[in-house]
Write a structure and sequence with these properties.
This protein is mainly β and 307 residues long. It has one domain: Beta-galactosidase, Chain A, domain 5, CATH 2.70.98.10. 7% of the residues lie in helices and 45% in strands. It contains two helices and 25 strands. The strands form five sheets. Strands 10-11-12-13-25-21-20-15-18-17 form a ten-stranded antiparallel β-sheet, with no helix packed on it. The protein is globular.
């Protein structure tokens, strides 16, 4: 762990690195992971320090990077401000635990980062504790901000009508979702969401993702985010556990854990793994793009998908 540094206008940030990849986290606000990328190269996380959302419980700022929320989305719960200093605890050079104080919604959030000794793999554990004096129902909701690029959500593998006639996968739509928006591509193997600076209107889709991964591609780098799916769990947002949001250059990849009833002082946990792949080029042609994605995932599945 290096000395503190200033990043995104925040003075007390910490740097984690293993020679192959680096992360920067904030201790002034959060918990937030502000940067994830190759040393000396672009941040795979988006940075939006100028944005602010006014909520009934105060001003919430995305800052950028990766954060932890509670679902279902609610202005008084999800947007509880996290603009105060947090505690941090190091366990060696490659494990860091970030713990925020109780927020205005009565929740205490914690993110634990475990960086691999070599390579780009990062395990991220999210925990939310109910500090209220009553039982609540929430789901942990991990959100990664990006700037532009392409989000990839996998569909269930093809099976013919002769082979199987039962439904395979729900697609969740919001009131503002427009399936004719050119930023959305509903392919035969993947749902694609693209950023577009010229289109500021929000779009969002969600799926029940049983494949255990989603991707974000920008330039020649592919970020694979993987997680475990529980077939017996009840997920929020009409059964959605993986969502993509876009508004202009602002984009989010989102994972949601199962809904849980939490009594006072009980905690719910959601874990995921990140990995970066270099020199990944995705064609503009829809079929060729799907072929390229399929080939990349097939060749790296053993190393990038959580078990």
């Amino acid at each position: 762990m290096s000395q503190r540094l200033k990043y995104l206008g925040l003075s007390n940030c910490l740097h984690m690195a293993n020679g192959d990849v680096e992360l920067i986290v904030s201790t002034d606000v959060g918990p937030r992971i502000l940067r994830y990328g190759f040393p000396g190269k672009s941040n795979l996380f988006g940075e939006f320090p100028e944005l602010v959302t006014h909520s009934p419980v105060g001003d919430w700022k995305p800052y950028g990077g990766h954060r932890l929320w509670a679902a279902p989305e609610n202005m008084s719960t999800s947007y509880a401000p996290d603009n105060v200093p947090i505690q941090f605890q190091s366990e060696g050079d490659r494990t860091l635990r970030l713990t925020a104080p109780m927020d205005a919604a009565g929740l205490r959030k914690q993110i634990t980062i475990r960086l691999a000794e070599r390579g780009t793999s990062v395990e991220v554990e999210h925990a939310i504790t109910n500090c209220n004096g009553w039982t609540i129902q929430i789901a942990p909701w991990s959100i990664t901000i990006h700037r532009g690029g392409t989000i990839i959500l996998p569909r269930e593998p093809f099976r013919s009508h002769d082979d199987c006639v039962v439904p395979a996968q729900p697609l969740t739509l919001w009131y503002f979702t427009d399936l004719q928006d050119p930023r959305l591509a509903l392919g035969s193997r993947y749902f694609i969401v693209r950023g577009d600076d010229a289109r500021s209107s929000p779009q969002k889709i969600g799926i029940c993702n049983k494949q255990g991964w989603c991707g974000y591609h920008n330039g020649d780098t592919l970020l694979i985010k993987s997680f475990r799916f529980d077939p017996n769990a009840t997920y929020p947002d009409l059964g959605s556990n993986n969502e993509a949001y876009v508004a202009g250059p602002y984009m989010e990849t989102e994972f949601l854990g199962p809904l849980s009833l939490l009594a006072q002082d009980e905690t719910v946990v959601l874990s995921e793994r990140w990995q970066l792949l270099q020199d990944i080029h995705l064609p503009d042609d829809a079929r060729a793009r799907e072929d390229a994605i399929e080939n990349v995932i097939a060749s790296h599945r053993a190393s990038v998908i959580m078990r």
